[in-house]
Amino acid sequence: MILTRRTLLLGGAGTLLAGCDRLNNSTGFRGALRSSEGLTMRAQRLISSREAMAREFTEADMSPVFRSNGTGNPDTPDYNRLAAGRFSDWRLRVDGLVHRPLQLSLDQIRSMPRRTQITRHDCVEGWSAIGKWTGVPLSLILDGAQLRDEARYIVFHCMDRYGDRPYYESIDLIDAFHPQTILAWGMNDRMLPIPNGAPLRLRVERQLGYKHAKYVARIEARATLAGLYGGQGGYWEDSNDYEWYAGI
Ligand SMILES: Nc1nc2c(c(=O)[nH]1)N[C@H]1C(S)=C(S)[C@@H](COP(=O)(O)O)O[C@H]1N2
Ligand SMILES: [Mo]
Predict the structure, then answer these.
(1) What residue segments make up the domains of the chain, in order of their start?
(2) Side-chain half-sphere of 41: how many Cα atoms within 13 Å?
(3) Which CATH number fits domain 53-240: 3.40.50.150, 3.40.1090.10, 3.90.420.10, 3.40.50.920?
(4) pTM of the predicted model as reported, rounded to 2 decimal places
(5) Which of 124, 155, 212, 237 is the best mutation target for the ligand 1 pocket, counting ligand atoms within 8 Å of the beta carbon and taking the most?
(6) How do residues 68-113 score in pLDDT, each as one tens digit?
(7) Cβ of 214 less than 6 Å from ligand 1
């Protein structure tokens, strides 16, 4: 797995340093973190913690109501037309730094291998809910598209605008290939409802709610997040200075 400096610094070096107060003042240590040689044994331990699984729950733990937050319906002419056709004309586009750009229908995605997981969703606004998600592992989609060597980030372009700007999000390759990172088309044993992101939404279970892009229409592999909207890798990162890596 390739780590960029940005990934390393944003992806948990804060946690690492917080746990290593004595080392905080050591320029040697910080210098090492900033350099490519920073992938030391310590950093390797950091990577393994990034790869740990989020807790999974049982049916009995599921919230009776799973609320919607942010956009509850994109309500654009395009979206309304797709929704009226039960998303049969919708396509997921996968492009950017890939060898094989893809266009997948909902049926094609639903016929791929699936994973079901009952997890807790934590919103930064202070509410949580436990829901059951079914979808295709993102890793399978990316393997199908064959990432180019330069790809470092996976960007999710959504069909809604929040306020006056499009919603988007991004994750690094550690989260992109995490086994619990799925593109969910099912929720609580039914098709994913519109308020929760139909026809397809990201579940990236090691991170806070705003990273879980709903209404995904396009997945783009990129070398950098610079030059994309506000350059911070997500709608809330651009507009409210939310952390790009929102680990929980
Ligand atoms: N496209 C899109 N994705 C989004 C949002 C949004 O407004 N638009 N809101 C985010 C936030 S802040 C949260 S907490 C979750 C809410 O998911 P839910 O509506 O299924 O509860 O979606 C996230 N993904
Ligand atoms: Mo949220």
Answers:
(1) 1-47, 53-240
(2) 0
(3) 3.90.420.10
(4) 0.85
(5) 212
(6) 999 999 999 999 999 999 999 999 999 999 999 999 999 999 999 9
(7) yes
